[in-house]
Amino acid sequence: LLLFFCLYIVYFSFSSRMATLSQIKEVFRRAEAVCFDVDSTVIKEEGIDELAKFCGVGDAVTEMTRKAMGGTMTFKTALTERLSIIRCSREQVNKLITDHPPQLTPGIGELVDRLHQRNIKVFLISGGFRCIVEHVATQLNIPLDHVYANRLKFYFNGEYAGFDESQPTAESDGKGKVITMLKEKYGFKSVVMIGDGATDVEACPPASAFIGFGGNVVRQQVKEKSLWYVTSFGEMLKELEKI
Prior knowledge:
Blueprint: H1 2-29, E1 33-36, H2 38-42, H3 47-54, H4 58-70, H5 75-86, H6 90-99, H7 108-117, E2 121-129, H8 130-139, E3 147-150, E4 152-154, E5 160-163, H9 174-186, E6 191-195, H10 198-201, E7 209-213, H11 220-225, E8 229-230, H12 233-240
Parallel strand pairs: 1-2, 1-6, 2-3, 6-7, 7-8
Antiparallel strand pairs: 4-5
């Protein structure tokens, strides 16, 4: 009897999970808006790590990024400390974008095109820097007013002056705040968040569903919290074709 009970619990849990997975896929197919994280999701790299390498302080910053994305320190603390190490100039940022433009993750272009064809609004919500994210948005034909990211500040001579701490994306729960704002502004009822990091998971709710992405890096904590976890954008593209 005990064995039967244990088997029933396992079956019930598995069935419930599958039902929820099915519901998440349905929400994705019927979404009014899809919000993507950028670093290690839409693009292959972490923008702040690339900037740090370009400025010669890569190792120190990469470890801090790992902690921030894994959720072991607040995002704002990690961002502040990383930028205080990098202290990039406007010229260095512009040269990074010119010499080492962000590399799109395979399949993202096709997925965004398909979403646009279905009249699903696409947004980029990033804890990275707007100057880099805007470059990505242009490549994907995403309107720049659909971009939410952090803004670097520079003195008149181009030297680093900090970042705009008033931006919601500077906070750990910033992506959720942006989604709440989008729902209020556009009247969206169904919004999906897609990303690889802890701040992406935290955006659901208010997002209607969260899809974990591990195509560039697998963060175990995020994978465990994702009922639908994909390693390629092709998996999501196939779901869209089911309608």
